[in-house]
Records
---
Amino acid sequence: MQRKQRLSRNTAYFVPYTLWILLFVIAPVLLLIYQSFFNIDGQFTLGNYQTYFSSSTYLMMTVNSVWYAFLITLATLLISYPTAYLLNETKHPQLWLLLIIMPTWINLLLKAYAFIGIFSQAGIANQFLSFMGIGPKQLLFTKFSFIFVAAYIQIPFMVLPIYNSISELKPSYINASRDLGATNWQTFSRVIFPLTLPGVKAGIQAVFIPSLSLFMLTRLIGGNKVITLGTAIEEHFLTTMNWGMGSTIGVVLIVAMVIIMWLTGGSGKRHTRKGLTK
Amino acid sequence: MKKLFGVIVGLLVVCGLLAFGAHRLQSSTGSTGAKVLNLYTWGDYIDPSLLTKFQKETGYHVNVETFDSNEAMFTKIKQGGTSYDLTVPSDYMIEKMKAAKLLLPLDKSKLTGMQNYDPRFLNLAFDHNNRYSVPYFWGTLGIIYNDKFVKPGSIQHWQDLWEKKYKNKIMLIDSARDVMGFSLASMGKSMNTTDPATLLAAEHKLNRLAPNVKAVVADEIKMYMIQNEAAVAVDWSGEASEMLDSNSHLHYVVPSEGSNLWFDNLVIPKTAKHFKAIYAFLNFMSEPKNAAQNAEYIGYATPNKKAKALLPKAIRNDRQFYPDNRTIEHLQIYKNLSPEKVGLYNDRYLEFKMHH
């Protein structure tokens, strides 16, 4: 009896969050899917999906979105992994971690505007380039600056999970590997990296998925030189008012995200299992 | 049973909170006291000192809420739950709101200032006989250039933008209708065309402009032009006037072969409640002195003939913002297109953006 009571009390704790999820996560997604089956005149149709998959514009945009999300993730990973590794070696990792997380306290738009100031013709970056004798370059509205700023924004989300998995790594493994005569590279590629892979995967998920639909940055920093699906969604909801088509693109993005989750989540398990049976 | 009870109580609490929230929101926008006017307008689109003056003269307090696009305003009024008394849509949106039965006709017997307006700006296609709307401001789409980088006078026509020397120097406003529109105007076509072949040709022409296009941006264009970031931009006259105020190197040109002429007019949405205040405000804003003060503050062109006469000579005779009659004759007002046609414009425009 007592146990049962406790059980029902425990379920009561879930009520607020369950309601939240139902109202603000499940219901909107269902509405989005529902809306994607209606054309501009409000008739039920599969036409939106047909348009999407037969239009080279949308397919190109999808490829673009995935490609840029990949580049952003790669750039972030290349910076974050060594950072997380070094962080673990420092004396006060918590302090450094705080400094890395600090930029996330600042609003995304403010950061974007700050970069406009830095990259503009008269900005600090160009002043430095002129000082070095290279002369002012066009930095804003380039694909480089877009990836740079996006990576800057995403880095904390990549560093955190990687740092967590590195700090959990027992130093005795590394010592053992060195004792057994492995070179530094072998230690890294055979011991450290595989053991911190879950952190890397979590980081990739945390960065790749939001990067798929970054759209304020494509305009503010990329000057619309980079067009992703986010741009098309904004246009369909705000200008053409073709909510059906906008929802369809939204659904495609959700499906793409699920696939990424499944790829990064699933393969990890298989990998460890294979490792065990070996 | 208990669990079910808990869930029901939880749901009721959430519903109660939502209802309370909705009530609070509503009362904050439309305080129900009689002496108010709820104005729904573009950001920074009225001189605040005029609102104080209006309250002093008539006793009505004006609550201002702002929107940043015609479409956002349309959606909010259509959804209901608001209590706006006046709003300021652009020409094509007035047509659209009329069609959606979102507007209330004006009671002409209560309007005292209509004779102050320039007849050229009354009785236009989007609202015959001004049954629903009172002119507020008008303006154009044009080219802004910086004389540090461009020889003054060398840009006069849309076609000049395609010249090779402007490689990577031009900024465009991120608006399908306007970008497609100037491409159409440069080919001598109507900016309201719905012919797919013509629109495709306009897109192809824009694709040839792509090497010159530095960026397609929105409101930030103002900041960039003021900071000398780009040599040339395509934007609206109102934005241009703000830029010119902050950077004396900038100039604004309305191509004489044709461009967009736009109007923002005051209308009464069907959500209106405070009719006495509405007519007091419309008459107040029609008074030449007030309209002139507003025009000087905002920097857009006033359709109020008597108000224009009160403006300083330098503003009144500025060809950039009050173009000559010959140019005005070639300007075109956007028509409200059906959703399919708007989609057509946007698809072509999206392709151009992909290309660039």
---
Amino acid sequence: MKVWVPCDAAAVACGADEVAAALASAAGLRGEEVEIVRNGTRGMIWLEPLVEIERDGVRHGFGPMTPEDVPALFEDGDHPKALGPVEEIPFFAKQTRLTFARCGRTDPLSLADYEADEGWQGLKRALELGGAQTIEEVTTSGLRGRGGAGFPTGIKWKTVAGADAPQKYIVCNADEGDSGSFADRMLMEGDPFCLIEGMAIAGLAVGATKGFIYIRSEYPHAIRTLNAAIKAARAAGIIGDSLMGQGPAFDLEVRVGAGAYICGEETSLLNSLEGKRGMVRAKPPLPALEGAFGRPTVVNNVLSLAAVPWILVHGGAAYAEFGLGRSRGTIPIQIAGNVKHGGLFETGFGMSLGTLVNEIGGGTASGRPFKAVQVGGPLGAYHGPDDFDLPVCYEAFADQGGLVGHAGFVVHDDSADMLALARYAMEFCAIESCGKCTPCRIGAVRGIETLDRVAAGDPAAIELLHELCEVMEKGSLCAMGGFTPYPVRSAIRLFPQEFSLSQEAAE
Amino acid sequence: MTEDDRLAAILADHAGREGALLPILHDVQAAYGCVPADCYQPIADALRLSRAEVAGVVSFYHDFRDAPAGKHVIKLCRAEACQSMGGAEMIARLERALGMKVGETKGDVTLEAVYCLGLCACAPAAMVGDQLVGRATPERIEALVAEVSA
């Protein structure tokens, strides 16, 4: 019997290790031969731990499993946690999995699994094409930064390729700190070779021989998996002194952050990588020209780099066929918070917000009425049912005063206290501000105070808060201070009564 | 090995490494449980920085401590996804049960806030030592602490 039990951090947090141990001991007791593969996650987190058993070449799912549910797996008859063929579960079947095609299917650290499933084909193609043509494919794909800013990846690579320098770098931004976002972690734990391949292709394309993956310290599982994967890829001769024994040198190193959210901002990340305080740098100079250690540097998010192998194998034009408007390809959407079916859903850009919350997410987990969904992390706006027609793409959300960001969607039911959430947004900015610019460093602290005045019923405070938001948005050096007003203003716009009730009571 | 030898060994490990300060500080904290102020000058000398630069970096990052934490560090996520699933109430109940506040160390236990563990689809989330907890409840966290303390 072949059984899969995910090793993804979310599955482990819900008891996957205990279930795997129970499986091993139950099999031992019965004298049955059981091969347990620790795969990544399929992304259906509400079903984790999701155990899969192969029958007639089809993988059947069981979940969410507990150790107590394990013995029944060995008995005849229907299992109470049986879910049927796992790839036919609607949440999974409705997806377009390009970047996450392997995640959950394979053993993340098995080179054989990776090779058998299109692994290294993109790198081979890039080696045939050469740097300039590789960049051409990425440009054709329309791929834009999946970290949130949405800058065209091909243009960034072209700038670095055109820069003349004795050393260039590829830096992967794996400092995924947004609440509601876990796609980077899922990919690094579930298919680390895909990221390694994407970075190797980037290195080849722009002439960089060294890559850094900057991972937040809150992700110890991802750090361990990536380090093991890099070691395996190096031992197999895929990276190192030469790419696959025929290309230029390219090697990788994991760097661990130290608990600073601001280091997800690319210039802060570069300072941190250099061993400095993670303070934002003013641009220009662009990191593409003066990045890590003053050298030309590609800084891309995990998902941008992990999209590249597919693009090289299938062609940029094939990737560009998915999507909407200028948002091309697929976006791994993370549905989280108070939602029945939380998890990762990869789909072409363009799905409506309402479909995502109600049909894919299945409504709230609590069963209480939906209230609002925050899109794009702690700096993203809140959206109510009036925005349910909005298609998920960069432009549509920007037009509504919001952002798609890294595509994290956090659902709240009607018990959410919007004034408290707005205050939290300011508090988070105050805790995490790097301190370089005044609007962010001081504005966030004044924001907390002003919201406390609103709560106390001070009639002048709302106007002051709006002015403060204006200053933070227009005057901050980066998105930390610049976007913190988004959740605050949208909460006020959607739920004005929650910001004035106490005021009326005071009057 | 004396204290000085341990630090010297860490510095030797990272000699010649580009931007070595953060990896060094992580190693120092792993060895000493914190980054003692006595280490600033030797680290500064090794990297040709000023003592102030090292002190500035240590104080900038939330991870680095100036005193060791309790034997059991419990990290509780305060971010929005966990809030949406009752995370704030969960933290309040745990604080009452343990008789301490987030940010404090009492006996063997340190309670800390963390801003996202990437477990947003199985919120609320926590971390007890290196063990992740999804769909967390105060009872489960207390049971884990009892288990590792035993």
